[in-house]
Amino acid sequence: MPGQMFDHIREMYQAELYEDLRQLVSIVLSVVDGGAGCDAGEILSLPQKYQSLIYYGDSLYQLGQYKKAETVFMRCLLLRKTLNKSKIKTISSTELTTEVDVRYKIYQCFHKMKQNTEALSILESINTKKRTSRVNLALAKLYLYEGRDRSAITCYKEVIREHPLALDALTGLLCLGMRGVDLMSYIMNSVPQVSCEWLNSWIKGHSHMTAKEYSSAITTFRSMEPKHGLKDNVLILCNLGEACFHGGHYSQAIAQFKRIHILDPLCLKNMDIYACLLYKEKKTADLHTLAQKLMSVSEHAVEPWIAMGYSSLAFHSTHLNKSKTIRAIYCAQKAFTLDSLSVQALVLKATALLDMKKAPQAIQHFQEAVRMAPNRYEAYQGLVECYLSSRKIKEALAWATRACKTIGNNARTFTLVASVLAKDPSSVARAKQYLNRAMTFDVNLLEPVYLMVDLLIQEQDFAKGAELLRKMQESHSTARLHQQLADCLASMNQHQEALDQYHISLSLDPNNVRAREASERVEKHNEMGLDAGYDVEAEEMMNASNGEPDYSDMESTWSETEFSQP
Protein backbone atom coordinates (compact mmCIF):
# COMPACT_ATOMS: atom_id res chain seq x y z
CA MET A 1 0.00 0.00 0.00
CA PRO A 2 1.28 3.51 -0.84
CA GLY A 3 0.84 4.78 2.70
CA GLN A 4 3.40 2.55 4.39
CA MET A 5 6.57 4.22 3.07
CA PHE A 6 5.13 7.66 3.69
CA ASP A 7 4.31 6.70 7.29
CA HIS A 8 7.98 5.81 7.84
CA ILE A 9 9.12 9.13 6.32
CA ARG A 10 6.68 11.15 8.41
CA GLU A 11 7.62 9.36 11.63
CA MET A 12 11.33 9.97 11.01
CA TYR A 13 10.60 13.66 10.38
CA GLN A 14 8.60 13.92 13.59
CA ALA A 15 11.48 12.22 15.42
CA GLU A 16 13.83 14.88 13.93
CA LEU A 17 16.11 12.24 12.40
CA TYR A 18 17.10 14.68 9.68
CA GLU A 19 20.22 12.98 8.38
CA ASP A 20 18.49 9.59 8.24
CA LEU A 21 15.49 11.17 6.56
CA ARG A 22 17.69 12.92 4.02
CA GLN A 23 19.23 9.62 2.97
CA LEU A 24 15.94 7.71 2.91
CA VAL A 25 13.97 10.27 0.90
CA SER A 26 16.83 10.63 -1.57
CA ILE A 27 16.64 6.89 -2.32
CA VAL A 28 12.83 6.70 -2.30
CA LEU A 29 12.48 9.65 -4.68
CA SER A 30 14.96 8.07 -7.08
CA VAL A 31 12.91 4.88 -7.08
CA VAL A 32 9.65 6.79 -7.56
CA ASP A 33 11.02 8.99 -10.36
CA GLY A 34 12.86 6.10 -12.01
CA GLY A 35 9.92 3.73 -11.90
CA ALA A 36 12.20 0.68 -12.03
CA GLY A 37 9.87 -2.28 -12.37
CA CYS A 38 7.11 -0.90 -10.18
CA ASP A 39 4.31 1.61 -10.22
CA ALA A 40 5.44 4.87 -8.57
CA GLY A 41 2.00 5.23 -7.06
CA GLU A 42 2.48 2.04 -5.11
CA ILE A 43 5.33 3.61 -3.17
CA LEU A 44 4.15 7.21 -2.81
CA SER A 45 1.03 8.85 -4.11
CA LEU A 46 1.38 12.32 -5.65
CA PRO A 47 0.31 14.13 -2.45
CA GLN A 48 2.64 11.92 -0.41
CA LYS A 49 5.51 12.66 -2.77
CA TYR A 50 4.82 16.38 -2.35
CA GLN A 51 4.82 16.17 1.44
CA SER A 52 7.89 13.94 1.44
CA LEU A 53 9.71 16.61 -0.57
CA ILE A 54 8.68 19.15 2.07
CA TYR A 55 10.16 16.93 4.79
CA TYR A 56 13.27 16.46 2.65
CA GLY A 57 13.71 20.23 2.22
CA ASP A 58 13.20 20.84 5.94
CA SER A 59 15.84 18.20 6.73
CA LEU A 60 18.33 19.85 4.38
CA TYR A 61 17.59 23.22 5.98
CA GLN A 62 18.16 21.82 9.46
CA LEU A 63 21.46 20.32 8.25
CA GLY A 64 22.60 23.73 6.95
CA GLN A 65 22.30 22.85 3.25
CA TYR A 66 20.33 25.99 2.43
CA LYS A 67 20.92 26.15 -1.32
CA LYS A 68 19.88 22.54 -1.84
CA ALA A 69 16.87 23.04 0.44
CA GLU A 70 15.82 26.05 -1.65
CA THR A 71 16.03 23.95 -4.82
CA VAL A 72 13.86 21.23 -3.25
CA PHE A 73 11.23 23.74 -2.10
CA MET A 74 11.14 25.27 -5.59
CA ARG A 75 10.42 21.77 -6.89
CA CYS A 76 7.63 21.55 -4.32
CA LEU A 77 5.99 24.66 -5.79
CA LEU A 78 5.91 23.08 -9.25
CA LEU A 79 4.52 19.84 -7.85
CA ARG A 80 1.90 21.78 -5.91
CA LYS A 81 0.53 23.24 -9.14
CA THR A 82 0.16 19.74 -10.55
CA LEU A 83 -1.44 18.60 -7.33
CA ASN A 84 -3.97 21.42 -7.40
CA LYS A 85 -5.15 20.24 -10.82
CA SER A 86 -5.32 16.62 -9.67
CA LYS A 87 -8.31 14.98 -7.98
CA ILE A 88 -6.21 12.48 -6.02
CA LYS A 89 -7.15 12.47 -2.30
CA THR A 90 -4.82 9.79 -0.87
CA ILE A 91 -3.74 12.19 1.88
CA SER A 92 -5.91 14.74 3.61
CA SER A 93 -5.47 18.22 2.19
CA THR A 94 -5.21 19.59 5.74
CA GLU A 95 -1.99 17.61 6.22
CA LEU A 96 -0.30 19.13 3.18
CA THR A 97 1.97 22.13 3.64
CA THR A 98 0.36 25.19 2.06
CA GLU A 99 1.89 27.04 -0.86
CA VAL A 100 2.29 30.13 1.35
CA ASP A 101 4.33 28.12 3.86
CA VAL A 102 6.49 26.70 1.07
CA ARG A 103 7.29 30.19 -0.17
CA TYR A 104 8.15 31.22 3.39
CA LYS A 105 10.52 28.25 3.64
CA ILE A 106 12.21 29.42 0.44
CA TYR A 107 12.53 32.89 1.99
CA GLN A 108 14.22 31.35 5.02
CA CYS A 109 16.78 29.68 2.75
CA PHE A 110 17.50 32.95 0.91
CA HIS A 111 17.72 34.76 4.25
CA LYS A 112 20.30 32.28 5.54
CA MET A 113 22.30 32.74 2.33
CA LYS A 114 22.00 36.56 2.75
CA GLN A 115 20.28 36.91 -0.63
CA ASN A 116 17.93 39.70 0.43
CA THR A 117 16.71 40.61 -3.05
CA GLU A 118 15.61 37.04 -3.78
CA ALA A 119 14.14 36.73 -0.26
CA LEU A 120 12.03 39.85 -0.80
CA SER A 121 10.91 38.69 -4.24
CA ILE A 122 9.61 35.30 -3.05
CA LEU A 123 7.65 36.89 -0.20
CA GLU A 124 6.17 39.55 -2.46
CA SER A 125 4.96 36.77 -4.77
CA ILE A 126 2.50 35.71 -2.04
CA ASN A 127 -0.98 37.14 -2.55
CA THR A 128 -1.58 40.02 -0.14
CA LYS A 129 -4.74 38.47 1.27
CA LYS A 130 -2.96 35.17 1.97
CA ARG A 131 0.04 36.64 3.80
CA THR A 132 0.39 35.39 7.37
CA SER A 133 1.76 37.43 10.25
CA ARG A 134 5.22 35.90 9.98
CA VAL A 135 5.27 36.71 6.26
CA ASN A 136 4.33 40.33 6.98
CA LEU A 137 6.93 40.61 9.75
CA ALA A 138 9.66 39.24 7.47
CA LEU A 139 8.56 41.61 4.69
CA ALA A 140 8.64 44.58 7.08
CA LYS A 141 12.25 43.88 8.03
CA LEU A 142 13.31 43.44 4.40
CA TYR A 143 11.55 46.67 3.42
CA LEU A 144 13.30 48.40 6.31
CA TYR A 145 16.65 47.11 5.02
CA GLU A 146 15.79 48.41 1.54
CA GLY A 147 14.82 51.81 2.95
CA ARG A 148 11.15 51.42 1.99
CA ASP A 149 9.76 52.75 5.25
CA ARG A 150 6.13 53.20 4.19
CA SER A 151 5.89 49.58 3.00
CA ALA A 152 7.50 48.44 6.26
CA ILE A 153 4.94 50.39 8.30
CA THR A 154 2.08 48.79 6.37
CA CYS A 155 3.42 45.30 7.05
CA TYR A 156 4.09 46.00 10.72
CA LYS A 157 0.52 47.26 11.12
CA GLU A 158 -0.81 44.06 9.57
CA VAL A 159 1.09 42.08 12.20
CA ILE A 160 -0.20 44.29 15.03
CA ARG A 161 -3.76 43.99 13.73
CA GLU A 162 -3.69 40.24 14.35
CA HIS A 163 -1.23 40.18 17.24
CA PRO A 164 -1.36 43.46 19.23
CA LEU A 165 1.30 42.22 21.67
CA ALA A 166 3.92 41.46 19.00
CA LEU A 167 6.67 43.51 20.64
CA ASP A 168 9.08 43.25 17.72
CA ALA A 169 6.48 44.79 15.40
CA LEU A 170 5.61 47.46 17.99
CA THR A 171 9.28 48.40 18.28
CA GLY A 172 9.54 48.57 14.49
CA LEU A 173 6.64 50.99 14.24
CA LEU A 174 8.08 53.21 16.97
CA CYS A 175 11.49 53.24 15.24
CA LEU A 176 9.78 54.30 12.02
CA GLY A 177 8.34 57.36 13.72
CA MET A 178 4.90 56.30 14.89
CA ARG A 179 4.02 58.18 18.06
CA GLY A 180 3.63 56.17 21.21
CA VAL A 181 0.21 57.71 21.92
CA ASP A 182 -1.04 56.80 18.45
CA LEU A 183 0.31 53.27 18.73
CA MET A 184 -1.30 52.75 22.14
CA SER A 185 -4.67 53.94 20.86
CA TYR A 186 -4.25 51.65 17.82
CA ILE A 187 -3.98 48.54 19.98
CA MET A 188 -5.91 49.67 23.08
CA ASN A 189 -9.11 47.76 22.31
CA SER A 190 -7.26 44.53 21.59
CA VAL A 191 -5.13 44.04 24.70
CA PRO A 192 -6.23 43.02 28.21
CA GLN A 193 -5.87 46.21 30.26
CA VAL A 194 -5.35 44.54 33.64
CA SER A 195 -2.51 42.22 32.67
CA CYS A 196 -0.78 44.67 30.30
CA GLU A 197 -0.37 47.77 32.44
CA TRP A 198 3.38 47.55 31.75
CA LEU A 199 2.80 47.97 28.01
CA ASN A 200 2.13 51.70 28.24
CA SER A 201 5.46 52.27 30.02
CA TRP A 202 7.26 49.99 27.57
CA ILE A 203 5.91 51.93 24.57
CA LYS A 204 6.66 55.23 26.30
CA GLY A 205 10.27 54.18 26.91
CA HIS A 206 10.81 53.16 23.28
CA SER A 207 9.18 56.39 22.11
CA HIS A 208 11.77 58.32 24.11
CA MET A 209 14.51 56.17 22.54
CA THR A 210 13.29 56.95 19.03
CA ALA A 211 13.17 60.66 19.86
CA LYS A 212 16.74 60.39 21.25
CA GLU A 213 15.44 61.47 24.68
CA TYR A 214 17.69 59.01 26.42
CA SER A 215 17.49 60.43 29.94
CA SER A 216 13.70 60.13 29.82
CA ALA A 217 14.00 56.61 28.39
CA ILE A 218 16.31 55.62 31.24
CA THR A 219 13.88 56.98 33.81
CA THR A 220 10.94 55.19 32.19
CA PHE A 221 12.60 51.79 31.83
CA ARG A 222 14.05 51.98 35.33
CA SER A 223 10.61 52.73 36.81
CA MET A 224 9.18 49.55 35.28
CA GLU A 225 10.92 47.32 37.86
CA PRO A 226 9.17 48.60 41.01
CA LYS A 227 6.04 49.88 39.25
CA HIS A 228 5.10 46.75 37.33
CA GLY A 229 6.92 44.04 39.27
CA LEU A 230 9.46 43.43 36.51
CA LYS A 231 12.46 42.92 38.76
CA ASP A 232 15.38 41.18 37.03
CA ASN A 233 13.57 41.00 33.70
CA VAL A 234 16.32 40.61 31.12
CA LEU A 235 14.38 42.27 28.27
CA ILE A 236 13.69 45.43 30.27
CA LEU A 237 17.28 45.50 31.50
CA CYS A 238 18.45 45.26 27.87
CA ASN A 239 16.28 48.26 27.01
CA LEU A 240 17.64 50.15 30.02
CA GLY A 241 21.24 49.29 29.14
CA GLU A 242 20.74 50.45 25.55
CA ALA A 243 19.26 53.74 26.73
CA CYS A 244 22.23 54.31 29.06
CA PHE A 245 24.68 53.46 26.28
CA HIS A 246 23.12 55.76 23.68
CA GLY A 247 22.83 58.50 26.29
CA GLY A 248 26.56 58.31 27.02
CA HIS A 249 26.12 57.01 30.57
CA TYR A 250 28.63 54.24 30.02
CA SER A 251 29.14 53.21 33.64
CA GLN A 252 25.41 52.81 34.14
CA ALA A 253 25.21 50.79 30.92
CA ILE A 254 28.03 48.51 32.11
CA ALA A 255 26.19 47.95 35.39
CA GLN A 256 23.01 46.90 33.54
CA PHE A 257 24.79 44.63 31.05
CA LYS A 258 26.77 43.01 33.86
CA ARG A 259 23.51 42.37 35.68
CA ILE A 260 22.03 40.81 32.52
CA HIS A 261 25.05 38.53 32.08
CA ILE A 262 24.78 37.35 35.69
CA LEU A 263 21.03 36.72 35.42
CA ASP A 264 21.30 34.97 32.05
CA PRO A 265 24.82 33.89 31.02
CA LEU A 266 23.41 32.53 27.74
CA CYS A 267 21.96 35.89 26.68
CA LEU A 268 23.84 37.34 23.68
CA LYS A 269 21.77 40.46 23.00
CA ASN A 270 23.82 43.65 23.52
CA MET A 271 26.83 41.70 24.79
CA ASP A 272 28.83 43.20 21.91
CA ILE A 273 28.10 46.66 23.32
CA TYR A 274 29.02 45.40 26.78
CA ALA A 275 32.39 44.19 25.44
CA CYS A 276 33.00 47.55 23.75
CA LEU A 277 32.33 49.39 27.01
CA LEU A 278 34.61 47.08 29.00
CA TYR A 279 37.34 47.84 26.46
CA LYS A 280 36.79 51.59 26.83
CA GLU A 281 36.75 51.23 30.61
CA LYS A 282 39.99 49.20 30.44
CA LYS A 283 38.44 46.36 32.43
CA THR A 284 40.67 43.86 30.66
CA ALA A 285 40.18 40.88 32.96
CA ASP A 286 36.37 41.16 32.81
CA LEU A 287 36.55 41.55 29.04
CA HIS A 288 38.66 38.41 28.55
CA THR A 289 36.32 36.40 30.76
CA LEU A 290 33.24 37.69 28.92
CA ALA A 291 34.70 36.87 25.51
CA GLN A 292 35.51 33.30 26.51
CA LYS A 293 32.06 32.72 28.01
CA LEU A 294 30.22 34.15 25.01
CA MET A 295 32.25 32.06 22.57
CA SER A 296 31.27 28.95 24.53
CA VAL A 297 27.61 29.90 24.03
CA SER A 298 27.80 30.18 20.24
CA GLU A 299 30.37 30.55 17.48
CA HIS A 300 27.69 31.43 14.96
CA ALA A 301 26.52 34.72 16.46
CA VAL A 302 27.97 38.21 16.07
CA GLU A 303 28.36 39.13 19.73
CA PRO A 304 31.00 36.52 20.73
CA TRP A 305 33.25 37.49 17.82
CA ILE A 306 33.03 41.19 18.64
CA ALA A 307 33.78 40.47 22.30
CA MET A 308 36.78 38.37 21.23
CA GLY A 309 37.93 41.21 18.97
CA TYR A 310 37.87 43.77 21.76
CA SER A 311 39.61 41.27 24.03
CA SER A 312 42.41 41.01 21.48
CA LEU A 313 42.64 44.80 21.21
CA ALA A 314 42.86 45.09 24.99
CA PHE A 315 45.68 42.53 25.02
CA HIS A 316 47.54 44.55 22.41
CA SER A 317 47.18 47.74 24.44
CA THR A 318 48.71 45.95 27.42
CA HIS A 319 51.44 43.94 25.69
CA LEU A 320 51.97 45.89 22.42
CA ASN A 321 51.39 42.73 20.40
CA LYS A 322 50.59 43.68 16.79
CA SER A 323 49.28 40.20 15.97
CA LYS A 324 46.49 40.69 18.49
CA THR A 325 45.31 43.79 16.61
CA ILE A 326 45.28 41.80 13.38
CA ARG A 327 43.26 39.15 15.21
CA ALA A 328 40.80 41.85 16.28
CA ILE A 329 40.35 42.82 12.64
CA TYR A 330 39.73 39.18 11.74
CA CYS A 331 37.10 38.89 14.49
CA ALA A 332 35.40 42.05 13.26
CA GLN A 333 35.34 40.72 9.70
CA LYS A 334 33.95 37.39 10.90
CA ALA A 335 31.19 39.21 12.78
CA PHE A 336 30.36 41.29 9.72
CA THR A 337 30.17 38.13 7.62
CA LEU A 338 27.62 36.72 10.05
CA ASP A 339 25.58 39.93 10.03
CA SER A 340 26.24 42.56 7.38
CA LEU A 341 24.06 45.01 9.35
CA SER A 342 26.27 44.90 12.45
CA VAL A 343 27.37 48.47 13.12
CA GLN A 344 29.38 47.30 16.11
CA ALA A 345 31.48 45.07 13.83
CA LEU A 346 32.36 48.09 11.68
CA VAL A 347 33.23 50.17 14.72
CA LEU A 348 35.45 47.39 16.07
CA LYS A 349 37.34 47.02 12.79
CA ALA A 350 37.75 50.78 12.44
CA THR A 351 39.02 51.02 16.02
CA ALA A 352 41.58 48.28 15.34
CA LEU A 353 42.72 49.98 12.11
CA LEU A 354 43.14 53.28 13.93
CA ASP A 355 45.12 51.44 16.60
CA MET A 356 47.44 50.29 13.79
CA LYS A 357 47.84 53.93 12.65
CA LYS A 358 45.85 53.23 9.48
CA ALA A 359 43.61 56.28 9.70
CA PRO A 360 42.41 56.31 6.03
CA GLN A 361 41.12 52.74 6.25
CA ALA A 362 39.60 53.41 9.67
CA ILE A 363 37.82 56.46 8.27
CA GLN A 364 36.20 54.34 5.55
CA HIS A 365 34.77 51.92 8.11
CA PHE A 366 33.58 54.65 10.49
CA GLN A 367 31.88 56.39 7.55
CA GLU A 368 30.13 53.15 6.61
CA ALA A 369 28.97 52.85 10.23
CA VAL A 370 27.54 56.38 10.03
CA ARG A 371 25.76 55.48 6.78
CA MET A 372 24.19 52.40 8.35
CA ALA A 373 23.37 54.01 11.70
CA PRO A 374 23.27 57.83 11.36
CA ASN A 375 22.48 58.24 15.08
CA ARG A 376 25.37 56.14 16.39
CA TYR A 377 27.55 58.62 18.31
CA GLU A 378 30.58 56.34 18.59
CA ALA A 379 31.00 56.35 14.80
CA TYR A 380 31.24 60.16 14.72
CA GLN A 381 33.61 60.11 17.67
CA GLY A 382 35.82 57.63 15.82
CA LEU A 383 35.89 59.83 12.72
CA VAL A 384 36.86 62.86 14.79
CA GLU A 385 39.70 60.89 16.40
CA CYS A 386 40.90 59.69 12.99
CA TYR A 387 41.11 63.20 11.56
CA LEU A 388 42.66 64.64 14.71
CA SER A 389 45.32 61.93 14.60
CA SER A 390 46.15 63.17 11.09
CA ARG A 391 45.99 66.80 12.28
CA LYS A 392 43.06 67.53 9.97
CA ILE A 393 41.16 69.79 12.34
CA LYS A 394 38.85 71.21 9.66
CA GLU A 395 37.58 67.75 8.67
CA ALA A 396 37.27 66.71 12.32
CA LEU A 397 35.15 69.79 13.06
CA ALA A 398 32.97 69.07 10.03
CA TRP A 399 32.12 65.59 11.33
CA ALA A 400 31.56 66.84 14.88
CA THR A 401 29.17 69.47 13.50
CA ARG A 402 27.44 66.82 11.41
CA ALA A 403 26.93 64.78 14.57
CA CYS A 404 25.14 67.77 16.13
CA LYS A 405 22.87 68.14 13.10
CA THR A 406 22.08 64.42 12.82
CA ILE A 407 21.93 63.24 16.42
CA GLY A 408 20.80 66.60 17.76
CA ASN A 409 22.18 69.19 20.12
CA ASN A 410 22.97 67.45 23.37
CA ALA A 411 25.72 67.18 25.96
CA ARG A 412 27.71 64.56 24.03
CA THR A 413 27.64 66.24 20.62
CA PHE A 414 28.54 69.62 22.13
CA THR A 415 31.47 68.02 23.95
CA LEU A 416 32.60 66.39 20.70
CA VAL A 417 32.64 69.78 18.97
CA ALA A 418 34.48 71.29 21.93
CA SER A 419 37.15 68.56 21.82
CA VAL A 420 37.99 69.65 18.26
CA LEU A 421 37.87 73.38 18.95
CA ALA A 422 40.20 72.88 21.92
CA LYS A 423 42.92 71.77 19.53
CA ASP A 424 43.26 75.29 18.19
CA PRO A 425 44.42 77.89 20.76
CA SER A 426 42.43 80.56 18.92
CA SER A 427 39.15 78.69 19.42
CA VAL A 428 39.53 77.63 23.07
CA ALA A 429 37.01 80.26 24.13
CA ARG A 430 34.42 78.77 21.78
CA ALA A 431 35.26 75.31 23.08
CA LYS A 432 34.51 76.46 26.63
CA GLN A 433 31.16 77.88 25.47
CA TYR A 434 30.19 74.50 24.04
CA LEU A 435 31.31 72.77 27.22
CA ASN A 436 29.23 75.09 29.40
CA ARG A 437 26.19 74.30 27.25
CA ALA A 438 26.99 70.57 27.48
CA MET A 439 27.16 70.72 31.28
CA THR A 440 23.81 72.52 31.30
CA PHE A 441 22.22 69.88 29.07
CA ASP A 442 23.28 66.97 31.29
CA VAL A 443 24.66 67.68 34.75
CA ASN A 444 25.53 64.00 35.20
CA LEU A 445 27.76 63.68 32.16
CA LEU A 446 31.41 63.91 33.16
CA GLU A 447 33.09 64.15 29.75
CA PRO A 448 32.52 67.91 29.38
CA VAL A 449 33.74 68.39 32.95
CA TYR A 450 36.97 66.51 32.23
CA LEU A 451 37.68 68.54 29.13
CA MET A 452 36.75 71.85 30.77
CA VAL A 453 39.14 71.16 33.65
CA ASP A 454 41.90 70.28 31.18
CA LEU A 455 41.40 73.68 29.53
CA LEU A 456 41.33 75.49 32.88
CA ILE A 457 44.58 73.78 33.90
CA GLN A 458 46.09 74.78 30.57
CA GLU A 459 45.10 78.38 31.36
CA GLN A 460 46.46 77.89 34.92
CA ASP A 461 43.05 78.70 36.39
CA PHE A 462 43.50 76.01 39.03
CA ALA A 463 41.09 77.48 41.58
CA LYS A 464 38.16 77.41 39.14
CA GLY A 465 39.07 73.90 38.06
CA ALA A 466 39.17 72.72 41.67
CA GLU A 467 35.82 74.37 42.36
CA LEU A 468 34.18 72.59 39.41
CA LEU A 469 35.68 69.25 40.41
CA ARG A 470 34.62 69.54 44.06
CA LYS A 471 31.07 70.25 42.91
CA MET A 472 31.04 67.13 40.72
CA GLN A 473 32.48 65.01 43.52
CA GLU A 474 29.35 65.67 45.56
CA SER A 475 27.55 63.12 43.38
CA HIS A 476 30.35 61.30 41.52
CA SER A 477 33.55 59.53 42.39
CA THR A 478 35.87 58.43 39.60
CA ALA A 479 39.61 58.00 39.29
CA ARG A 480 39.76 60.76 36.70
CA LEU A 481 37.90 63.28 38.88
CA HIS A 482 40.18 62.71 41.85
CA GLN A 483 43.30 62.80 39.70
CA GLN A 484 42.33 66.12 38.12
CA LEU A 485 41.49 67.65 41.50
CA ALA A 486 44.85 66.46 42.82
CA ASP A 487 46.60 68.09 39.85
CA CYS A 488 44.86 71.41 40.58
CA LEU A 489 45.63 71.23 44.29
CA ALA A 490 49.28 70.39 43.66
CA SER A 491 49.59 73.40 41.38
CA MET A 492 48.06 75.52 44.16
CA ASN A 493 50.69 74.23 46.65
CA GLN A 494 48.09 72.26 48.61
CA HIS A 495 50.32 69.23 48.53
CA GLN A 496 48.89 67.14 51.36
CA GLU A 497 45.34 67.30 50.07
CA ALA A 498 46.67 66.64 46.57
CA LEU A 499 48.34 63.47 47.85
CA ASP A 500 45.07 62.39 49.45
CA GLN A 501 43.26 62.84 46.14
CA TYR A 502 45.95 60.92 44.24
CA HIS A 503 45.62 58.06 46.70
CA ILE A 504 41.83 57.97 46.21
CA SER A 505 42.34 57.99 42.43
CA LEU A 506 44.78 55.08 42.66
CA SER A 507 42.41 53.15 44.93
CA LEU A 508 39.74 53.44 42.25
CA ASP A 509 42.14 52.65 39.41
CA PRO A 510 45.43 51.03 40.53
CA ASN A 511 46.67 51.12 36.92
CA ASN A 512 46.44 54.90 36.66
CA VAL A 513 50.04 55.61 35.69
CA ARG A 514 49.59 59.39 35.46
CA ALA A 515 48.19 59.59 38.99
CA ARG A 516 51.00 57.43 40.36
CA GLU A 517 53.75 59.46 38.68
CA ALA A 518 52.20 62.78 39.75
CA SER A 519 51.83 61.48 43.30
CA GLU A 520 55.50 60.55 43.39
CA ARG A 521 56.47 64.03 42.19
CA VAL A 522 54.38 65.70 44.88
CA GLU A 523 55.90 63.47 47.57
CA LYS A 524 59.36 64.31 46.29
CA HIS A 525 58.61 68.03 46.46
CA ASN A 526 57.35 67.62 50.03
CA GLU A 527 60.49 65.80 51.05
CA MET A 528 62.66 68.53 49.49
CA GLY A 529 60.64 71.22 51.25
CA LEU A 530 59.85 73.06 48.03
CA ASP A 531 56.89 75.37 48.21
CA ALA A 532 57.00 76.71 44.68
CA GLY A 533 53.84 75.93 42.77
CA TYR A 534 54.01 73.90 39.64
CA ASP A 535 51.62 72.78 36.98
CA VAL A 536 51.30 69.00 37.04
CA GLU A 537 48.63 68.33 34.44
CA ALA A 538 49.52 71.06 31.98
CA GLU A 539 53.08 69.85 31.76
CA GLU A 540 51.91 66.34 30.88
CA MET A 541 49.41 67.62 28.36
CA MET A 542 51.76 69.75 26.29
CA ASN A 543 52.82 68.20 23.04
CA ALA A 544 56.58 68.33 22.69
CA SER A 545 56.49 69.09 18.97
CA ASN A 546 54.20 72.13 18.87
CA GLY A 547 53.24 72.95 22.44
CA GLU A 548 49.56 72.18 21.85
CA PRO A 549 47.55 70.32 24.46
CA ASP A 550 47.40 66.58 23.85
CA TYR A 551 43.96 65.02 24.01
CA SER A 552 45.06 61.70 22.62
CA ASP A 553 43.65 59.98 25.70
CA MET A 554 40.20 61.35 24.97
CA GLU A 555 38.73 57.87 24.50
CA SER A 556 39.88 56.70 27.90
CA THR A 557 38.65 59.95 29.39
CA TRP A 558 35.21 59.27 27.94
CA SER A 559 35.15 55.82 29.46
CA GLU A 560 36.51 56.36 32.96
CA THR A 561 33.22 57.62 34.32
CA GLU A 562 30.66 56.60 36.84
CA PHE A 563 27.37 58.41 36.69
CA SER A 564 24.63 58.81 39.23
CA GLN A 565 21.05 58.38 38.10
CA PRO A 566 20.01 61.06 35.61
Tell me about this structure:
- With 566 residues, this protein is an all-alpha fold.
- Among the domains are: 1-130, Tetratricopeptide repeat domain (Serine Threonine Protein Phosphatase 5, Tetratricopeptide repeat); 443-566, Tetratricopeptide repeat domain (Serine Threonine Protein Phosphatase 5, Tetratricopeptide repeat, Alpha Horseshoe).
- 73% of the residues lie in helices and 0% in strands.
- It has helices at 3-14, 18-34, 40-43, 46-62, 66-85, 99-112, 116-124, 133-146, 149-162, 167-175, 180-187, 197-210, 214-228, 234-246, 250-263, 271-281, 284-297, 302-319, 322-338, 343-355, 359-372, 377-389, 393-407, 411-421, 428-441, 447-458, 462-472, 479-491, 495-508, 513-528, 536-541, 554-559.
- Helix 15 (250-263) crosses helix 16.
- The longest helix is centred in the N-terminal third of the chain and has 20 residues, at 66-85.
- The chain is elongated, with a radius of gyration of 30 Å.
